[in-house]
Amino acid sequence: MSVEVAAEERPDLILVVDDDADIVRIVALNLELHGFEVMQAADGQEALEVIDRRRPDLAVVDLRMPRLDGLELTRRLRANPMTAALPVIMLTAKGLTVDKVHGLTAGADDYLVKPFDPAELIARISSTLRRNKEAREVSPLTGLPGNSRIRREIGDRVRSGVDYAVGYIDIDRFKSVNDRYGFVRGDEFISALARSLHRAVVSVGLPPAFLGHIGGDDFVIVCAPEQVRPLTERAVVDFERTADELYDPEDAKRGYVELKDRRGNIQKAHLVTLSIGVSLSVPERRFTDPLEVIAAASEMKTVAKSQPGSYVAMDRRRKPR
């Protein structure tokens, strides 16, 4: 499991693109007064050159500029995978509804009509940044919280001092599904696991358990220690039943899929199961670092993978004396 250590907080970097130097100066001054860092460009072409050197968190772009206007700049940003998710606020002329439509059609996230109140621009920028950050913290496949939200959840439990458990879950032999049926079917298995885990989390009631999706077929649950057994038992039964229905009928009936290795030999891969590693933070072993509790759960998942079928490996070790 890959968990990044949170980087030191830095100001959001805003790129202001406008051929009117007075507007750029006013916008930049207001942004800096509100704690933002600012880059500037006089037109779309210069903006692309600036972005190539340093990636901003958001761009404020005038619609009408020489060389490369705001519409074409936004289209190019959206066409480039490296900048496709960059939030763009378009500045349009007063009363020209068609400009707003064109800007949003090109891919702008929001627009503001000139002349504008700098306070409104700051509010729009802050709102757009917040939405963008929230979207990045959610898995697009499952809609579940991602890595940074998982870290915060475990960190909150560490600081609270309560007893808790962290479970690290993945699908055994998931590669055989992708190899046999392709990635689209593989995504169906991942979505099925997300639904099974969600139903299991809901079924254990209070206190509310947390469910996150790291990526691929890797998931994390954070719950009370006494919830681990009912939650994992429900998830395993639910997922195995659902997964059987996702296989082609002949594969499900015989209990394995046939795959060719590099030499053309037929290999048999059993149907998918779940491996779940669980670490406990309890008085006998109190974790003080989120990375430690995650590492322990990852270690237990390795133990679970050494066992046949779906398996839950619980770390019951005590703190060394």
Task: Describe the protein's architecture and organization.
By secondary structure, the protein is α/β, with parallel strands linked by helices. It contains eleven helices and twelve strands. The strands form three sheets. A five-stranded parallel β-sheet has the order 2-1-3-4-5, with helices on both faces. α1 packs across α5, α2 packs parallel to α3 and α7 packs antiparallel against α8. The radius of gyration is 25 Å and the shape is elongated.
Mean pLDDT, all residues: 87
Tell me the overall shape. Answer: elongated
* Uncertain stretches: 1-8
- Helicity range: 40-55%
Q: How far is the N terminus from the C terminus?
A: 28 Å
Total of helices: 11
**Annotation, overall tally of beta strands:** 12
**β content, as a range?**
15-25%
Which structural class matches the secondary elements? Answer: alpha/beta
For the largest beta-sheet, the strand count, sense and barrel status come to: 5 strands, parallel
Please provide the ordered H/E string of secondary-structure elements: EHEHEHEHEHHEHHEEHHEEEHE
Provide a compact summary of the structure:
By secondary structure, the chain is α/β, with parallel strands linked by helices. It is built from eleven helices and twelve strands.
Search tags:
disordered N terminus, alpha/beta, 5-stranded mixed beta sheet, single chain, 11 helices
Outline the fold blueprint.
Layout: E1 13-17, H1 21-33, E2 37-41, H2 44-53, E3 58-62, H3 70-79, E4 88-92, H4 97-106, E5 110-113, H5 118-136, H6 147-160, E6 164-172, H7 174-181, H8 183-203, E7 210-215, E8 218-223, H9 228-246, H10 249-254, E9 256-260, E10 266-270, E11 273-281, H11 290-305, E12 311-315
Parallel strand pairs: 1-2, 1-3, 3-4, 4-5, 11-12
Antiparallel strand pairs: 6-8, 6-11, 7-8, 9-10
